[in-house]
Amino acid sequence: MRVLFVFLLLSCYSIGQVDSYSDEGSLPKNFISANIGTWIIAHNIGMVYERVLPNFLYTEKENFNVNSTVSLSLNRTHVEFNLFGKEIYRTAISYISFGRIYDFKNTRRKTKIFVEWHLGIGGRYNLDSEKYRAEPIAKFGLRFQPRQNFFFKIIGGTTELTSLGLGVCF
């Protein structure tokens, strides 16, 4: 019975995040954004949730801060070809990705500017033929945060093509 008690006591493990982002120059923990974009023949609309993780992979440097982030997204893409007859592809893409956000320090401007990149894995579901396949995800972009709770971003990559996003952070 003692062995069982010790085993149960030692097996309790919790994962949490310390509120280390309370200072003025840091990122909030949660981001939700809606994006819309186009690239000549392809059009995209989607939603993204991002969670900023504790900075355990990189220490602070003089020119910028680095934060890790995990993203969950759902996108809807419409592609239309008119070369040899009309072909239309409608897909839904959901993915999870890991990324980095670089915050460049500048105390004179009120708008914060961030550079970000994300790598991950996603699932593409073709709505017309009902086929599902996995694919790699890569995206790169800029994020502008003029206010504490609002941000604007420009993203290019494999799922969003080229898109503009508006979001809130908390």
What is the distance, rounded to the nearest whole angstrom, between the alpha carbons of the first and last residues? 46 Å
Please count the helical segments.
Answer: 1
Largest sheet: 8 strands, antiparallel, barrel
Number of domains: 1
User: What is the molecular shape?
Assistant: elongated
Number of strands: 8
**What integer value in Å does the Rg equal?**
20 Å
Q: Estimate the strand proportion.
A: over 45%
Oligomer: single chain
What order do the helices and strands follow? HEEEEEEEE
Task: Give the spatial strand order of the biggest sheet.
Answer: 1-2-3-4-5-6-7-8
Q: Supply the CATH class.
A: Mainly Beta
Contiguous runs where pLDDT drops below 50 for at least 5 residues: 1-24
Binned, the helix content reads: under 10%
CATH architecture title: Beta Barrel
Give the overall average pLDDT: 78
Protein described:
- The chain has 170 residues and is mainly β.
- The protein is 6% helix and 61% strand.
- The chain has one helix at 2-11; strands at 30-39, 42-52, 64-81, 87-104, 112-126, 131-145, 150-157, 161-169.
- An eight-stranded antiparallel barrel has the order 1-2-3-4-5-6-7-8.
- A hairpin with a 4-residue loop joins β6 (131-145) and β7 (150-157).
- Mean pLDDT is 78; it is low at 1-24.
